Amino acid sequence: MGGNYNNNQHKGQGLMLNESVEGDTLTIRTSDAEDKMKRNGWGIKGGIDFFMNKTTTLTLSGRLGNYGFGRGGQTHQHIYSDPFLEDVYSVSVNDSRREGDYYETTLNLYQLFKEEGHKLEAMVMYSSRNGDDWEEQFEYDSDSSYIIDDLFPSGIMTTEAGRSKNIRVRADYTKPFKNKTTLETGYQLRIENDPEDYIYSEYDYDLNQWIVNDRFSTQMDFAEQIHSLYGTWTGELKSFGFQLGLRGEYDYRDIYSSGSDSTFLIDRFDLFPTIHLSKKLTENHQLMASYSRRVDRPRGWDLEPTVTYMDPYNVRIGNPSLEPEFIDSYDLSYQYRFNKSFISLEGYYRITKNKISRIRTLLDGGIIQHTSVNMDRDHATGTELMANLELTDWLLINASLNVFYYRLQGSVEEQEKDEETVSWNTRMNATFKLPADIRLQLTANYRGPTITAQGNQEGFFMTSLAIRKDFLKRKLSATLSGRDLLKTARRESISEGEGFYSYDKFSREAPVFNLTLSYKINNYKQKLRNGNNEEIEIDTGGYEY
User: Fold this and answer.
1) Is the distance from CB of 292 to CB of 329 less than 8 angstroms?
2) Omega before 273 cis (within 30°)?
3) pLDDT for 204-254, tens place per residue?
4) Other Cβ atoms closer than 10 A to 90
C-alpha cells in the first residue's frame, strides 16, 4: 500500500485590456490582477493479488483521498469612455474553493493460455467523487490610487454541490496465430453520472445576509454511456508489416438543466478505422504509412450551463449543445535506426470536423461572456523531424521540430471565418546519467504563435530542470524540479468580435521549485507461467508514497 500528500502554492499575474462599442460610445476597461493559487490533498492506495494458479491472477485494489483547490486575489480596474461619460476606478476581491473526497475500487483479471502471447485481461472499476465548489466576489469603489472608499460593495456568491459516479468495464482478448499474425479484440463500457446543484446568491446589506437569486440558480444532471467494441489484426509478410483495426462506439449522452426548456441529447453510433503499414527497406531503414480516425469529446467543464464569475466584467458558461470533435489523420514517415538511437521524418495531414473552439460574446453592460462552440473544421499540414540520440552511456537527447500550415474554417456568431497561418513548435529533452544514481534532466519547449476562432495567440518558451537521486537500492527517490527557469512562459492573446476587442496577458510565478520524495513497497516482478510452463514476468510496480 502507499499514500501521498501535497500542499502547493503559487502566484500569478494578469493584465487585460477590453474595448467595447455601444452606439457612438467607446468604453475602455483595463484590469491588473494578482492571484494566489493553492492545491492540496492526500490519498492512500493499496491492493492485494490472488494467484489462483500458475496462469491466473486476480487483483483487487483501491484508493481514497481528499482534494482541494483554492484561488484568491485582487483586481484593479479602470473604466473610462470616449466621449466622456464615466471615469471609474474599482477593486475586485475574489475568493474561491473547490474541495471534496473521492474513492475508487478496481478488480483485474489476468489469464494466460498455452500459446505464447495468448491471454485474456479484464477489468471492472467503480469510482465516486463528492465535492463542493464555492466562490465569492466583492467589488469596491476606489480612488485613482486604488484606495478603497466603499462601505457597501456589491457582492455575489456561487456554490455548486455534486457527486459524480463512474463505472468502467473492459475485456481484452489476444490470440496469436502460426502465420505470424495476432488478433486482438475487446469491449469497453464507460458510464458517468454527474448531478449538480448550482446556487447563485447576492449580499443584502439591509438583512446582513446572502439572498438566493432563483433566476440564476439551476440544477443539472449529466449522464453518459459509451459502449466500444474493437478489434485489431497485426502481422508481417516478408518485409511488410501491417496493423488493421476497427472500433465501433455507441454514445448516449443526456444533459438536463432546470434553466432551459431544451433537450440536450446525443444518441449516435460511429466507426473508427485504423490502418498502419510499414516497409523494412534494410536493417536500419523503414518506411511507415497510416490512417486513423479518432474522437475528442468535450469535458464536463465545457458542458455545464452554469455561470462562473471570473471577475465583475467576465463570466464563463458551458455549452450543453457541444458535440464531439472527429479527427482524420494521414501520416507518412521514414525512420533510420542506428545503435540505440533513431531519427525520423514525418509528413502529415489532419482534419478536425466539429472543431471545438472557445469564443467570447459582448453582453449588456460591457460584460464579456466566455463559452465554447462547434465550428466547422480545421486543417493542419506539416512535417516533423524527431531524434532520439543516445550519444554516450551518460547522455540521452530527445528532440523534435514541427513546422505546419494551419487553416481554420467555420462560423462564429453568424460570421464566416476562413483564416490561415504557418507556425512551428520545437522541443528538446536532455537526460544526464551521473554517478551515484543521480539523473539530471533539462527540458525546453517553444510553441509558436497561432490563430484562434476570434483572434490569435502569441508563442511562448519555457525551460524546466529536474534532478533525481535514488537511495536504498532505488526504493527511495528524491526529485528536485524547477519550472520556467528563465521566466518566459507568458501567455498573450487577442480576441475580437462584434463590438469588442480584448487583449490578455498572464504569467505564473517563476521559477517554481518542488521537492518530491517517493518510496516503493513490493517493487518486484511477479512471474506467471503459461500453458507451456514458460515463465512470463508481470511488473506489479509496487506502490509509492
Assistant:
1) yes
2) no
3) 999 999 999 988 888 889 999 999 999 999 999 888 999 999 999 999 999
4) 21
Q: Which neighbouring-strand residues pair with 234?
A: 182, 243
Q: What is the 3-state secondary structure (H, E, C) of 112-170?
A: ECCCCCCEEEEEEEEEEEEEEEEEEEEEEEECCCCCECCCCCEEEEEEEEEEEEEEEEE
Closest CA to 253 of 311, 305, 302, 297: 297
> Which residues, other chains included, contact 23 with Cβ-Cβ below 8 Å and sequence gap of 6+?
none
What's the predicted TM-score (pTM) here? 0.86
Distance CA 262, CA 265 (A): 9
Cell triple for residue 113? 493460455
Burial (Cβ within 10 Å: 0-12, 13-18, ≥19) of residue 539: exposed
Give residue 268's domain range.
Answer: 2-544
The residues with which 156 forms a beta bridge, in sequence order, are 137, 202
- Give the 3-state secondary structure of residue 364: helix
Exposed, middle or buried: residue 86 (CB in 10 Å: 0-12, 13-18, 19+)?
Answer: exposed
528: cell is: 506467471
Taking CA atoms, 159 is separated from 64, 96, 134, 135, 196, in Å, by 24, 10, 4, 6, 10
Contact 343, 335 (CB under 8 A): yes
Q: Furthest-apart CA pair in the chain: how many Å?
A: 88
Q: How far apart are CA 87 and CA 115, in angstroms?
A: 80
- Tens digit of pLDDT for each residue in 443-463? 999 999 999 999 999 999 999
> Which residues have CB under 8 Å from 206's CB, separation 6+?
none
CB 232 within 8 A of CB 243: yes
How many domains is the chain partitioned into structurally?
1
Residue with cell 512551428: 424
In the block, which residue shows the cell 462599442?
Answer: 21
- Amino acid letter, residue 356: I
CATH of the domain at 133: 2.40.170
Which of 420, 509, 427, 511 is closest to 465 using CA atoms? Answer: 511
Question: Beta strands 356-362 and 415-434: pairing type?
Answer: unpaired
